[in-house]
Fold:
Amino acid sequence: MNKTIVAVSTPLGKGAISIVRMSGEKALEVALKFFNCKGQVEPRKMILGEFDLGDAKEKCLMVYFKAPFSYTGEDVVEFQLHGGITVTRMLQERLIEGGATLAEAGEFSKRAFENGKISLDEAEAIIDEINSESEGELRSALSSASGKLHEKIRNLQNQLTNLLAEIEVSMDYPEEDENEIVRDSIFEKLQQTQRELEEILNNAKQARFIKNGIKIALVGKANVGKSSLLNALIGENKAIVTSTEGTTRDVVEGSIDYNGIRLNFYDTAGIRESDNDIEKIGIEKSKKTLEESDLVLIIYDGSENLNKNDENIKKIIKKPFISVINKQDKLRKLKPQENEITVSALQKQNIQQLKQKIFETIIKDKIDFNGLIVTNERQLQHIKTAKKQVDEIFKVKNESLEILSMLIKKVWNELGKITGETENEDIISVIFSKFCVGK
Structure:
């Protein structure tokens, strides 16, 4: 029998409501040791009562979910009480005194997986949903949580199961002509599996920006308005703005959500020759940020002619870039630059157009947020491995049906690591340990 577990399921702190959750065979029994109410406790009905904290009573709500109709598939009891660290912890401690055990990180969701309430990929989608920082990340997580990935992988596994059945029948009745027909059929169907895996991976290449966002470095000579532009892009005064050259000594970061994608901006120290040791460190950090970026905004002062510093900066850019001509509110002296857009960071002119240009430069194809988007690195790695295994089968087309069967089973098992059907307990424990306590 599983122990009855308990945990606080909301962040500890001051707030309107805290939730404490229990799951296990004795969840209701433990709850009723301390909770008193008028009337009968019925499954799925919220009831008002008092919880005995020892020296005081807390007026709160309790709801009981009878197995198997609960998140974990076990009996579950949840208390909704007034938000606050002390009262929440006291209520949890009383439940532990009554026989419950403090839950481990992710233990509720692990039990849901073990009881067939969610698949492993759906469990990981819950983690991604909790951790999402942009609309795109959230949509991707919700897509997986709804079972789209699980359905896709199960369909692929079913295709492979049917292939294995064909091979088994053929091996039971080994006639050479029939075997060749079966072999042709096998590879025709494997091509379909290969195409579907490739399609998932191709979508993931573009969709990686949903997970990680776009990393954008702002570079330029000192005092061209990089810090002012960062502030205008993110809508807050994150970077210090002065007329003194070399003010930015470290990389200043800021992020926004744009069209469902997180744009991560990095305002770098002005790249120039400097005798100041501290400024030199900042310049080296700027160069490192450039190497790690997906896109570079080269900032120019439109009211000045191109100088040696501007030319030297452009020479070191090896990534896709946009030439941002700042100070469009002044008389322009700068000659036209490659892939340029004019803005005024100070007057916040053309800032929205710049965001759109950034988006279109990196996101080449329209991302279908309603389709299947896989951004989870573990899941993608297993899909890549499965695709590679299928590719390898095509290199040994003339091997015996027994060997082909063995290789196809490897692909089936690899895909099963996404849903949890073939995964071992150690890996499952690692995945659920990423959850917070109470989830």
